[in-house]
Amino acid sequence: MESASPASVIGRLVDELSWAGSSIRRLRNGGQGDENVLTAEVMLLLSLLPRTAFLGGLLMAAHGADKTRALVTSGLENATVQMFPDEITIPGTRIRVQPDAAIGQDNAAVLIEAKGTRKAARFQKTQLAREYLALMTGPREHKLLLIIMDTAPPVRIQSAGRLDLFDGVKVGLEELCSAAAFSADDGQRLSRAIPETVCWITSQEIQAVVANAAAHYPCIDVSLAGTLRRLAEGVTHAIDWHSGRTEMAFPPQSGGQL
């Protein structure tokens, strides 16, 4: 009997990294610059912080799919946030897709794809098209694909160069629709729906959102306020460290040393 997938963020990350084989050696420095490690660190903290102000603030600061982002944000408090969710099979094909993270609601689904901070990071040729098609063939009424990047579009697409994000999603989409036996009308409908479904935000914008939310979050309990501050600082520090802007994995703590 196959064991159930681990529920915790750390468990999901370890399970994901276990498939790296000999390339796991690249993580000996703590995984600096690795998109899976970075995404797990940031999403774990965002899932723990007050949802509407922090994760909701992130979604509202993103670019594109305005109506869908607003709808998803309104239901975040009761949403499920999962890192490295189970693979999604595109109907009619053997093509499997695993986004970096997913947010689930009763009537909405969000898939999140994060690109690491390494220079010249690029998406596989049909990566965005596969994730978009997997999302659009799902059962939820409202759908959102959030792309997190180190810099604003254009995006680098393997074998296609630098493209506008929406054009990057279209790369390979027609081919995938054909493989799934979709009609030409269905393919055109899916292509037209990209602007109302796909959005993006940069890591630096996430830092700004989190810092602003932490600075203005109303909290009179000193201990709780400190907890919110430490969690928010963790997001900023993780992004800075993976980007190479800070040298230490953990900032020094005040009040003496252990």
Features:
258 residues, alpha/beta, five-stranded mixed β-sheet, two-stranded antiparallel ribbon, 9 strands, globular, disordered C terminus
Structure characterization notes:
By secondary structure, the chain is an alpha/beta fold. It has one domain (9-242). The chain is built from ten helices and nine strands. The chain has helices at residues 9-17, 35-48, 55-61, 66-73, 127-136, 165-170, 173-179, 184-192, 203-216, 222-242, and strands at 80-83, 88-89, 96-97, 101-104, 108-114, 142-149, 155-157, 161-163, 198-202. The strands form three sheets. The chain has a five-stranded mixed sheet with strand order 1-4-5-6-9, sandwiched between helices. The chain starts with 8 loop residues before the first helix and ends in a 16-residue tail after the last helix.
The overall pLDDT, averaged over residues, is: 88
| Helix content percent band | 40-55%
Strand content: 5-15%
Number of domains: 1
Sequence of strands across the biggest β-sheet = 1-4-5-6-9
Low-confidence stretches: 248-258
H-E order = HHHHEEEEEHEEEHHHEHH
Sheet with the most strands?
5 strands, mixed
Gap between N and C termini, in Å? 45 Å
Overall body shape: globular
Alpha-carbon Rg, integer: 19 Å
Number of contiguous helices: 10
- Summing up helix and strand content along with how strands pair, one would put the structural category as alpha/beta
Number of strands: 9
